[in-house]
Design goal:
This protein is of the alpha+beta class. Helices cover about 50% and strands about 10% of the residues. It has helices spanning about 20-30, 35-60, 70-80, 120-135, 160-170, 175-185; strands at about 90, 100, 140-145, 155-160. Helix 2 (about 35-60) packs across helix 4 and helix 5 (about 160-170) crosses helix 6 (about 175-185). The radius of gyration is 16 Å and the shape is globular.
């Protein structure tokens, strides 16, 4: 019987989901810490890509960059669930923006007292992980979060320029789906 997580050259540790609540509380007291959490998540995501590649290989699947689009999302979701992050579903929001949705993301805490999305480690993790898949820099923007009272966490993925445009539009009150569609046509 093979393990769910293949052996790997980098070390990994398991932490309880409450760990993320403590990180979030710390970041709320020190907003400068948010970028540090995202940076740490990014480094973890870059490394997690290697584990994903090994996991795919053990299953007889192609390397991440060579998976057909209709297989990549489900396999990525299954992998992230198997390592404890939570199951993700992929949805195309526009031709330039993809969304990852999850109702069980490990970093989110139902009923947390936060007013904005706060899965900072996960945001960085997904940027590092998917950037390795794409072999290009990608941005990740969390637009819905269970910690802020939403039913799911929703992460938007796109190029740095496209998500900067989406973020700026959201700051002006434009809904993210409309901003994503506008970015794709603009």
């Amino acid at each position: 019987m093979t393990s769910t997580i293949p052996s790997q050259s980098s070390r990994s540790v398991a932490v309880s989901a409450e760990f993320f609540g403590a990180l979030r509380a710390s970041a709320e007291r020190n907003p400068a810490a948010v970028q540090s959490l995202r940076d740490a998540g990014f480094a973890a995501g870059v490394s997690l890509y290697d584990t994903f590649s090994l996991w795919l290989d053990e299953r007889g699947e192609a390397a991440p960059a060579f998976l057909p689009d209709d297989q990549f999302g489900p396999l990525m979701g299954e992998f992230l669930s198997s390592v404890g992050w939570g199951a993700l579903r992929v949805e195309q929001v526009s031709s330039a923006v993809m969304a990852l949705d999850t109702e069980d993301w490990a970093e989110a805490t139902d009923g947390a007292e936060t007013s904005s999305p706060s899965c900072h480690v996960g945001t960085g993790l997904l940027a590092g992980f998917l950037g390795r898949v794409a072999d290009a820099p990608l941005s990740v923007l969390e637009v819905e979060c269970r910690s802020a009272g939403h039913q799911r966490c929703r992460f938007l993925i796109g190029s740095v320029d496209v998500l900067a445009y989406v973020y700026e539009a959201m700051e002006r009150g434009v809904p993210y789906d409309r901003a994503a569609n506008s970015a794709a046509t603009g």
